[in-house]
Recover the amino acids of this structure.
C-alpha cells in the first residue's frame, strides 16, 4: 500500500496543533480544529433540531472526521466524514466536542 | 386494493436521503419528468405517478429526501406522515451506495416503522469509481430485506427493481431484522410489549417504532398516541420516567444512544459488506475543490461564473431576441391584418383589445430565448454540484443578513445582477431548510432585477442619463442586492424574529457531469413555467387594465368635436386631390379609410423588414395585394403619384394626432386615470404624475406592462415610427420633468412590490395570504418612501439626478457595511482565520 497516496488533507501550516479549547467550555471542539486535522467526536452538545441534523449527517460519537477547510470568509467549515463532505457553520461546530487523532500512524 | 378494471393496485413510496437519486428512479420507473438536480432538497412536495407491470398497477410516490424520520423538519414530517397515513405496500429505500453507512441509518428507521422495505443501492457507478466493492448477499442477509443495485441515471437495474416491487408488494416476505438497542433494549422491549397489546395503535404504526419514539420524547409520536388512545398519559409518563432513569444511569440522552446504536450497526454492516479498494486516496471532488474552494481563488471563480452567466444569457440572449423579435412582430402584423379593419377615428373594440393582448403577450415572449439560456446554465450549475459550493462560499455573508447559503439559487434565478424572473426564484426557495431564512429569501427575491424591469430602466436612462448610462445601470443592478440584504436583515430582526430556524448543515455533493437531456429538460420546464404562470396572469390582467383604461370613454360633445376635425381633414385631402387622376381610386369614404389603413400597415411592414431586399419584397407584396393603392404607397417618380402620396401622408398624420388626443382624453377620464390622479397627492413628494402612477399601477400586473402602458400614454397612433424615448422625452421635458424624477421613478421601481404572478407564488410557497399581502404592502411603502426622499431632498439641495443616485447608492452601501459589521466590533480583521489566534491564546 506504500504507493498509494495517503489521504491527508493539507496538514495545516507548520505543526498542526492539538484541537484547542472552545470559547464556551474548556473542552476542545471541532470549530477550533485546524484545517487538515483529524479528530474523533466525543460528544455533541446542544439539542433539538441542530443536534438531530448533526447526528443524521454522521456526527456520531466515536466517529473520526477531518476538518478540511473553512470557506473563503472563514465560515462555514467543510468537514470530511465517512465518504462525504459536509459543510457546517462554526456555531454548530462549537457544539461538537472532539479529541485529536494522530494521523501518521494510522 | 383493486382497480376499476380489476387490476391489482399497489402503492410504493420512494424514500431515502437527499440527493440519493429518488427522483431519478421515480422518472426511470414511471417515465414521468420530475425535477432532478445534484443539489440536496430539490423535491419537497411529494409527487406520484403510476406504471403497469402485467396485471399490477403500481402507484409510485416520490417523497422528499430525509436524513432520518424525526419531527424536526418539514420534509421529515411530510415523509413520516405519508408512511403512517397511507401505509404504502412497499417502501423503496433509495440509498447512495457510495455512502452506505449514512444511508443505512434511515433504512433501520424505515424497517422499524414496519412497512415492507426494499433497499435500492443507487449510484453503483459512483461507488465503483470510488473503488468501493459492495457485496450484496451479506447485506441482504443482515438486513433481511431485498437489496437491488441500480444506476438510476442510466436506468440500470430498473427491471430488477420492478420485479422486487412485484414480489414484495404481492406477498409477505420474511420479517426484517430488528436493531438491538443494547442497554436501552429492555426498556424498548417493555414499552413495545405494552403498545402491541393496543389494537388502535398497532393498526397504524409499528409498536417498536412508537416505543423508541416515545422513549426519545418525540412530540409528534406523543400526539399520535394521544389521538388514538384515551389514557395515553400513563404510557407517555412511563416512557418519560424510563427515559429519565436511562439517562441518569448512562449519562447519555436516549436520542443519542439510539443514534449511536444505529451508527454502530451501520458501520459494522458497512465494514462487512463494503471493501474500500482505494482507501486513503483523495477523492476527485476534493482535488477539484482545492482549487475551486481555495481561499483566494474561490471568489475569483465565483465572479467568473456569474460573469459567464451574465454574458451568455443576458448579452447573448439579447442578441438572440433580435432574431426572434421580427417573428413576434410578424405575428402582430398578421393579427392586425386578420382582425376587423380600423375605422378612421374609432377602431372596433375587438381590434383594439386583440392588438393590446398580442402586444402584452409579445413583450413576455420576447424574453424566452434569454430564459432558456439562463435556466440551462443554472441547471448545469446545479447538476455539477457547484451550486452547493456557491452556497458554501456565500453563506457567511448571507447569514449575516438573516439569509442562508442556499438563498443563492433563488437570488440567481431572480436575477441578481443579470436579470431573471422572481417566479422560479421564489419557487426555488423550497430547498432552504431554515424557515426564517427561507421567508426572508422569499420576501427579498422580488427585489432582484427581474428582466421585465429592464425595459423601463433602459427607457428612462436613454432619456435622462445618456452620458452616464453605464454608471446608472451599474447602480441599479447592484443597489437591488444591497436593498435585498438590508431588507432581509430588517425583516429577520423584526417580523421574522420568532420564526423557526435551522442549522446550516449541507452536504457538498461530489461533482457530476451534467447530462444534456437533464439540463435541457429543466431549462425548458422552468421556462415553460414562466410562460404559463406569468403568461396567463399577464394576459388576464392586460385585459383588465385595457378595460380600466378605455372606459367610461369620451363625452358626446368631445366625440362630436373630434368628428368635426376628422371631417375637415378628409375634406382637405379631397381638395388637394382635385384634378389628380388618382382621386377616382378613393372616390368614397370607405375606400379612403381602406387606403389610410393600408398606408399604416405598409409602414409597419416596412419597419419590420430587414434589409433592402426584404423592403422591396414588401413593396412588391403591396403592389400585388392593393394594386389600386400602389401609387399612393410605393415611392415613384410620377408627379401625380407623388402629390397623392404627400396628401395621404398629411391626412394620416392628422389622423394620428386626433387619435392620440382622443386616447389621451380617454385615459385621463378613464377609471385607471382617475385612480392615478387621486394618488397624486401621495406620490407628489416623489414627483410622480398621474401618468407615471398609471404605468406603475399597471406594472403590478406584470412589470413588462409598465413600458407598454407608458407607450400607450405617450402614444401617437397606430403604426407609429418614433421611439418611445423620443416621444416621452419630448413630452416629459416639456412638462418640466428632470433626471431627478427619473431617478425617483427608477428607485421606486427597483423596490417595487413583486408582480402579480410572483405574489401568487409567494402565496403558494408561504401558504399564507398574510405574507402575500405583506410582500405587496411593505415594498410599496419602502419604495415610495425612498422615492419621496430622493426627490424632496434632491430638489431641496438642488442636486442633479446622477448626483442623487450616487448619494443614495453610497448611503445604502455604507448602511450595508455598517449592518454587516454591526454584530462584532469594528476593526475585526475579517479574512484572518481566527482559529489560529485562538490556538495561540489557548497555549498561554
Ligand atoms: N452517477 C450517478 N448519478 C446519479 C444516479 N442517480 C441519480 N444521479 C444523479 O444524482 C443527482 C441527484 O438525483 P435526484 O434524483 O434529484 O435525487 P433525489 O433523491 O430526488 O434528491 P432530493 O429530491 O433532493 O431529495 C442528480 O444529479 C442525478 O443525475 C446514478 O445512479 N449514478
Ligand atoms: Mg428528488
Amino acid at each position: 500500500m506504500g504507493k498509494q497516496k495517503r489521504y491527508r488533507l493539507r496538514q495545516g501550516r507548520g505543526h498542526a496543533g492539538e484541537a484547542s479549547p472552545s470559547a464556551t467550555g474548556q473542552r476542545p471542539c471541532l470549530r477550533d480544529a485546524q484545517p487538515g486535522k483529524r479528530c474523533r467526536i466525543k460528544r455533541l452538545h446542544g439539542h433539538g433540531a441542530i443536534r438531530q441534523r448533526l447526528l443524521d449527517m454522521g456526527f456520531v460519537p466515536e466517529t473520526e472526521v477531518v476538518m478540511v477547510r473553512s470557506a473563503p470568509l472563514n465560515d462555514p467549515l467543510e468537514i470530511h466524514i465517512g465518504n462525504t463532505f459536509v459543510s457546517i457553520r462554526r456555531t454548530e461546530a462549537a457544539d461538537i466536542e472532539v479529541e485529536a487523532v494522530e494521523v501518521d500512524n494510522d | 386494493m383493486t382497480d376499476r378494471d380489476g387490476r391489482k393496485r399497489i402503492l410504493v413510496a420512494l424514500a431515502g436521503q437527499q440527493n440519493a437519486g429518488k427522483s431519478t428512479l421515480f422518472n426511470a420507473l414511471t417515465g414521468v419528468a420530475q425535477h432532478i438536480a445534484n443539489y440536496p432538497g430539490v423535491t419537497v412536495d411529494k409527487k406520484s405517478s403510476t406504471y403497469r407491470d402485467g396485471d399490477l398497477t403500481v402507484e409510485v410516490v416520490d417523497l422528499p429526501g430525509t436524513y432520518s424520520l424525526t419531527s424536526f423538519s418539514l420534509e421529515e414530517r411530510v415523509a413520516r406522515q405519508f408512511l403512517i397515513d397511507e401505509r404504502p405496500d412497499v417502501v423503496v429505500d433509495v440509498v447512495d451506495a457510495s455512502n452506505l453507512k449514512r444511508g443505512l441509518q434511515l433504512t433501520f428507521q424505515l424497517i422499524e416503522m414496519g412497512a415492507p422495505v426494499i433497499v435500492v443501492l443507487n449510484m453503483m457507478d459512483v461507488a465503483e469509481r470510488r473503488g468501493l466493492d459492495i457485496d450484496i448477499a451479506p447485506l441482504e442477509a443482515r438486513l433481511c430485506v431485498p437489496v437491488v443495485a441500480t444506476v438510476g441515471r442510466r436506468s440500470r437495474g430498473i427491471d430488477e427493481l420492478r420485479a422486487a416491487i412485484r414480489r414484495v408488494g404481492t406477498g409477505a416476505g420474511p420479517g426484517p431484522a430488528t436493531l438491538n438497542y443494547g442497554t436501552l433494549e429492555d426498556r424498548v422491549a417493555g414499552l413495545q410489549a405494552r403498545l402491541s397489546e393496543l389494537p388502535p395503535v398497532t393498526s397504524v404504526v409499528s409498536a417498536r417504532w412508537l416505543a423508541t419514539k416515545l422513549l426519545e420524547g418525540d412530540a409528534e409520536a406523543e400526539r399520535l398516541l394521544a389521538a388514538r388512545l384515551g389514557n395515553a398519559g400513563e404510557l407517555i409518563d412511563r416512557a418519560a420516567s424510563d427515559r429519565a432513569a436511562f439517562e441518569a444511569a448512562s449519562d447519555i440522552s436516549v436520542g443519542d444512544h439510539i443514534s449511536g446504536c444505529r451508527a454502530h450497526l451501520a458501520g459494522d454492516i458497512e465494514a462487512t459488506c463494503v471493501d474500500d479498494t482505494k482507501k486513503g486516496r483523495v477523492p476527485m471532488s476534493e482535488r477539484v475543490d482545492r482549487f475551486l474552494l481555495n481561499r483566494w481563488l474561490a471568489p475569483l471563480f465565483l465572479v467568473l461564473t456569474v460573469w459567464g452567466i451574465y454574458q451568455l444569457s443576458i448579452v447573448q440572449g439579447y442578441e438572440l431576441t433580435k432574431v426572434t423579435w421580427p417573428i413576434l412582430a410578424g405575428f402582430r402584423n398578421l393579427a392586425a391584418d386578420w382582425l376587423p379593419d380600423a375605422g378612421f377615428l374609432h377602431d372596433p373594440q375587438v381590434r383594439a383589445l386583440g392588438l393590446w393582448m398580442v402586444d402584452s403577450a409579445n413583450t413576455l415572449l420576447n424574453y424566452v430565448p434569454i430564459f432558456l439560456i439562463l435556466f440551462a446554465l443554472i441547471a448545469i450549475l446545479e447538476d455539477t454540484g457547484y451550486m452547493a459550493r456557491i452556497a458554501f462560499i456565500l453563506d457567511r455573508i448571507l447569514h449575516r443578513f438573516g439569509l442562508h447559503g442556499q438563498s443563492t439559487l433563488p437570488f440567481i434565478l431572480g436575477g441578481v445582477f443579470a436579470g431573471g424572473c422572481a417566479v422560479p426564484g421564489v419557487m426555488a426557495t423550497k430547498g432552504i431548510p431554515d424557515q426564517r431564512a427561507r421567508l426572508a429569501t422569499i420576501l427579498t427575491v422580488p427585489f432582484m432585477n427581474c428582466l421585465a424591469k429592464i425595459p423601463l430602466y433602459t427607457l428612462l436612462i436613454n432619456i435622462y442619463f445618456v452620458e452616464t448610462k453605464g454608471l446608472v445601470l451599474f447602480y441599479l443592478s447592484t443597489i437591488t442586492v444591497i436593498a435585498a440584504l438590508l431588507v432581509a436583515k430588517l425583516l429577520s430582526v423584526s417580523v421574522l424574529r420568532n420564526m423557526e430556524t435551522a442549522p446550516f448543515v449541507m452536504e457538498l455533493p461530489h461533482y457530476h457531469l451534467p447530462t444534456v437531456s437533464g439540463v435541457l429538460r429543466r431549462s425548458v420546464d422552468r421556462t415553460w413555467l414562466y410562460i404559463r404562470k406569468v403568461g396567463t396572469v399577464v394576459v388576464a390582467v392586460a385585459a383588465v387594465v385595457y378595460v380600466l383604461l378605455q372606459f367610461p370613454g369620451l363625452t358626446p360633445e368631445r366625440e362630436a368635436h373630434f368628428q368635426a376635425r376628422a371631417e375637415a381633414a378628409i375634406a382637405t385631402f379631397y381638395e388637394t386631390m382635385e384634378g389628380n387622376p388618382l382621386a377616382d381610386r378613393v372616390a368614397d369614404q370607405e375606400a379612403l379609410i381602406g387606403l389610410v389603413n393600408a398606408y399604416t400597415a405598409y409602414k409597419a411592414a416596412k419597419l419590420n423588414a430587414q434589409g433592402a431586399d426584404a423592403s422591396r419584397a414588401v413593396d412588391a407584396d403591396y403592389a400585388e395585394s392593393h394594386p389600386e393603392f400602389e401609387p399612393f404607397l410605393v415611392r415613384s417618380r410620377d408627379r401625380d403619384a407623388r402629390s397623392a402620396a404627400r396628401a395621404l401622408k398629411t391626412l394620416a398624420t392628422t389622423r394620428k394626432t386626433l387619435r392620440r388626443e382622443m386616447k389621451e382624453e380617454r385615459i385621463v377620464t378613464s377609471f385607471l386615470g382617475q385612480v392615478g390622479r387621486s394618488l397624486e397627492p401621495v406620490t407628489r413628494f416623489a414627483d410622480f404624475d398621474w401618468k407615471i402612477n398609471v404605468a406603475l399601477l399597471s406594472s403590478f400586473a406584470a412589470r413588462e406592462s409598465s413600458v407598454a402602458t407608458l407607450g400607450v400614454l405617450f402614444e401617437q397612433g397606430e403604426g407609429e415610427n418614433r421611439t418611445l424615448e423620443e416621444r416621452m422625452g419630448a413630452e416629459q421635458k416639456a412638462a418640466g420633468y428632470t433626471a431627478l424624477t427619473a431617478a425617483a421613478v427608477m428607485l421606486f421601481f427597483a423596490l417595487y412590490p413583486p408582480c402579480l404572478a410572483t405574489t401568487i407564488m409567494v402565496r403558494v410557497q408561504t401558504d399564507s395570504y398574510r405574507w402575500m399581502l405583506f410582500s405587496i404592502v411593505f415594498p410599496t411603502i419602502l419604495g415610495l418612501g425612498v422615492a419621496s426622499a430622493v426627490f424632496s431632498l434632491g430638489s431641496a439641495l438642488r442636486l442633479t439626478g446622477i448626483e442623487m443616485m450616487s448619494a443614495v447608492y453610497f448611503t445604502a452601501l455604507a448602511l450595508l457595511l455598517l449592518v454587516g459589521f454591526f454584530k462584532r466590533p469594528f476593526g475585526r480583521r475579517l479574512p484572518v482565520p481566527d482559529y489560529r489566534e485562538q490556538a495561540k491564546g489557548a497555549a498561554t
